[in-house]
Design goal:
single chain; mainly alpha; Arc Repressor Mutant, subunit A; Tetracycline Repressor, domain 2; transcription regulation; HTH_TetR; transcription; DNA-binding transcription factor activity
Length: 198
């Protein structure tokens, strides 16, 4: 039986939107397509998301939040700050690499959507750097990372590892030797963070 507007939830709309985007791409996917996939009127979709732009922003946020949520569990692990930092950076690289490799059509779609939704991307980056800041702050507190400004250090680490998580580098993520290059960059950053500040 087709869902009714009473049983329609924002989450179901976002799931359907993702499927419609996968099938039609961002240029052709419409709210009517989403409503049709759900068996409801497009007005029912608009009751949850006031505009097409709001729907696209919400589906983009949902996609980015999946990565943030996976990484958040690493932040408070019962491990040394160095182990957590290595695990966090590795998990970020793997999450992005899997998104690009497992479903390239959807990854390409989301690359377009993230370009449209700068605010959502900015919030995602702020969330990720806040997670990094917590790890580095823990390291500063224990003396593992004697840095004077953990937030500045976190931003620098995020920027220094951009090749391994920024979608513009996605084609490089399967290149021969990329894992060794990633490890070399992380090793260098850990050594830098672990050196006493002058």
């Amino acid at each position: 039986m087709a869902p009714t507007s009473e049983t329609l939830t924002a989450e179901r709309i976002l799931e359907a939107t993702e499927e419609v985007l996968r099938r039609h791409g961002p240029a052709k996917a419409t709210v009517v397509d989403v409503a049709r996939a759900l068996g409801v009127s497009h007005g029912s979709v608009y009751r949850h998301f006031r505009t097409k732009a709001a729907l696209r922003e919400a589906v983009t946020k949902r996609w980015l939040d999946r990565t943030s949520e996976k990484l958040a569990v690493i932040v408070d692990r019962d491990e040394s700050p160095e182990e957590r930092l290595r695990a966090w950076l590795g998990a970020l690289f793997e999450a992005k690499r899997h998104k690009a490799g497992d479903d390239p059509e959807l990854f390409a779609t989301y690359t377009v959507l993230t370009d449209e939704n700068g605010t959502v991307v900015g919030e995602h980056i702020a969330d990720l750097t806040a997670q990094l800041t917590r790890i580095i702050t823990a390291g500063a507190g224990s003396g593992t990372f004697p840095v004077p400004d953990p937030a500045a250090a976190a931003r620098a680490v995020f920027q220094a590892t951009g090749r391994f998580h920024d979608p513009c580098h996605a084609r490089e993520w399967t290149a021969p030797g990329v894992d060794e290059e990633f490890t070399a960059v992380v090793d260098l950053l850990i050594r830098g963070l672990s050196s006493p500040s002058r």
